[in-house]
Each structure stands twice: as C-alpha cells, then as structure tokens.
Amino acid sequence: MHKNHIRVSARGLVWRDDELLVAQDTKPTEDEQFYYPLGGGVEFGEHSEDALRREFEEELGVSLINVTYRETYEGLFTFDDNPVHELWRVYEADIAESWPYERDEFSGYEAEFDEKIDCFWKRPTEFSEGRETFYPEQLIPDL
Fold it and tell me: Residue 14: which of 48, 53, 58 has the closest Cα?
C-alpha cells in the first residue's frame, strides 16, 4: 500500500442460489477470520470490469459472464496497522465454468503474494446477523 494513495478495487458478487461466493482471510494483527468478495486491484489504465475479469482468471482460472455493474463503495480503515482508503467497484457476475458451483469450498491462488485463497459459499445472513465478519461492511445491507 502506498501512503496517501486511494486503492481502487473491483469485486464480484457471484451467487449460487442464496449463497455468495466469498474468500476467507485473517487479520494479521488480530488473528480474526473475515470474508470478502473475490476480485482485486484495478491497474492504472484498466477499466474496473476488465480488472474483475482478470482477477477471477488469475486467481481461480475461470471466466466471468453476465457481468453487471452494481455500486461503488468507499472505505477508510486500518489494516495491519496502516491507514487504508479504498474504493470498491462492485459487480454481479456468473462464472462460466460449472465446477465452482459444484463444490462447497475450493482454493484459488494469489500469485502476487504467493498465497492460497480459500473460497466458500456463504449465506449473507451469516454476515448481517454478525456470526461472521465481512468486508466491506458497507456492502452487507445490500446483499
């Protein structure tokens, strides 16, 4: 993260009936698990929809279809003791391949950080009722 830099991120809401595809991570300083919609950073000169398609291809090896822009959210927060300012461009989308829908959980890969991405299907009520932590929090009421 660059100081005094606003990070633009493209995130995809992919549904399997009433379940949302989410990735799981852990806050480094608090050892607390949280979930978030898959996607990633938008590079300079790249449209956010193209970034979303690229991220799903890179991390899961899948193609997106029926991509529809939904909303932009903004957040100011602290992560790993660093102030962060992010804009999330959120899209609804479907995955062209069938295998992710056939598995309750699976792994992707984030090459930039050499990390495995644990993916799950979760009902939004798990987040809205506070049983699980979801970021960006601003998105929860709209799920």
Answer: 53
